[in-house]
Amino acid sequence: MLSANRRGINPESSFGKANRRLIGNVFFMSVDSCVAMDQPSSAPSFRLKGGLFPLTLIELANGDLQRLRTDLTLKVAEAPSFFQQAPAVLSLELFEDDAQALDLQAIQQLCLEFGLIIVALRGADEALQATAKELNLAILANSRTKPVVALEPSAEKEPSAQEEPSAAKEPSTQEQSSAAQGSSDDSEESVTDDLFSPVGAPALETGQPATDSTGAARSAPVPTKVITTPVRSGQQIYAAGGDLIVLAPVSAGAELLADGNIHVYGPLRGRALAGVNGNTEARVFCQSLEAELISIAGYFRVNEDLRDKHWKKSVQASLTDETLNIEPLR
Amino acid sequence: MAKIIVVTSGKGGVGKTTTSAAISSGLAMRGHKTAVIDFDIGLRNLDLIMNCERRVVYDFVNVINGEATLKQALIKDKRCEQLYILPASQTRDKDALTKEGVERVLNELIEHGFEYIICDSPAGIEHGAFMALYFADTAIVVSNPEVSSVRDSDRILGILQSKSRRAEQGLTVKEYLLVTRYNPGRVESGDMLGVDDVQEILSTTLLGVIPDSESVLKASNQGLPIIHDKESDAGQAYADAVARLLGEEVDHRFLSVESKGFFQRLFRRSA
Ligand SMILES: Nc1ncnc2c1ncn2[C@@H]1O[C@H](COP(=O)(O)OP(=O)(O)O)[C@@H](O)[C@H]1O
Ligand SMILES: [Mg+2]
Fold this sequence. Notes:
The complex is a heterodimer. Chain A is an alpha/beta fold. Chain A is 11% helix and 23% strand. Chain A has helices spanning 65-78, 104-113, 126-134, 303-306, and strands at 6-7, 33-34, 47-48, 56-59, 86-91, 116-122, 138-140, 225-227, 236-239, 244-246, 255-258, 262-268, 271-274, 284-289, 293-296, 299-302, 315-320, 323-328. In chain B, β3 (75-76) and β4 form a beta hairpin. At the A-B interface, loops of A face α6 and α7 of B. Magnesium ion (MG) is lined by residues 16-17, 40, 45 of chain B.
């Protein structure tokens, strides 16, 4: 029998710190896949699972190491708890200098000094990718380029929420959220501030996603993502750093993710994962609860636990002491 | 302005080809110059339903590859003056369809003065289906009144509105739902989803409801698009759908067991 509340893999737990201040997040999404082995008799030695982890994105504006050191020093003073062996992605998408002259290893070392572990590189040209390989860095696809038109085979898609305890952190599809027709944001990832931004803006800015519970100074509010057209099966919409409002039905097989709250003014038949960065204060509101799964900060309930007296009613879901509560809206 | 209409569904065997044949014939019967393209490369059967399989020389892929001109490959329908069929290749694989190639053929059809271009999509959501829907400005999503078909239609609607050319341009694709193989008796006994349920799940415009009818099978075996069978309820329902597509307001028929269509069928069967 399924218990009413289960704990999904909390992305924060991999960092051991619940109130980490995030600068900008990148989410990696993938589908479960088992390793196929040739020998039928032996069980696979491991299982591949998709994960959904917040990562810091460092968007480097220039190759000035001295300036980077100064900026990092300032940043550490501002939010020391952030820089504790935190994994980070180095992005060169906003890089303005000659990338050929970039000393990748020096940057890696420098970041390490400040507790930031560069795990991957994004937006690099071929030459730099080769260097990255030598440094054992993963290469990530450029965020600006849209995924090629490859449509996934339907077999790949499975509503695993019913059986998979960790499902709450594993979006069931790889399709990127260009589904968000109502929004101009065509990337699943959105960076909430200008880290290491080009000249003019302060080089380091404090991120302030909804997860922020440190009470430190907040900068401008993150815009709410508003979707006005139906969210269909297989679509995934992620509101990075803020709230998500959907003014249309959300189909079974669709997935909503937000660092903040989720509001659905229509039937919610798919999955809704609020506070995906670990924000336990986040809530889910919907006009008609018909969801496959509702999750807040990794605590979730699946469809069969939701089919009670509140089914098809207007409700809100909130978290108290690791328990996901559903109560009617009046 | 020429209209590119994709007939799609996600799921196979729901009635896309039957619908493509009926709708394209219906539009041509109403005086519109229409082309219907079979995108189901490797599994062609539109030409069978249109009864032109023995006249196929060149196909869609030949045109894309420049091995034949569009004019050489287009087959003129025997029944409708204004209708042309562009058959699929039986031998190639789906990758023969390229975005550039498909676009070129569509543009050429528009230049030739075609008002409607109907794209009969293969099942699934892979390359062939994507190619069929990518350039569409209107979509007829065919769904049978059962949960898995409706779910696939929902998925296709999502893909249409996020991956098509119009979506990339920040525009929407006009969407229509066509419920086919509808059996009011089975809806009443609870074996089948009602049209209201389907519409509630998909929340989109209903183009029509085509009853499940033996006449469809009979017609397709004869190579006759069902819309030519003016006696059959399915043929009439398709004619209504064409009228709605052309902007006319027509009441939906054949939705309940009491409807004329059902009794006619009973009557005809016993007669
Ligand atoms: N309204 C209908 N009533 C009865 N049979 C139908 C109806 N529509 C389609 N069919 C039958 O269903 C089968 C699949 O139809 P088809 O149009 O080839 O589907 P698709 O192109 O979606 O694979 C065919 O045998 C066809 O005759
Ligand atoms: Mg077909």
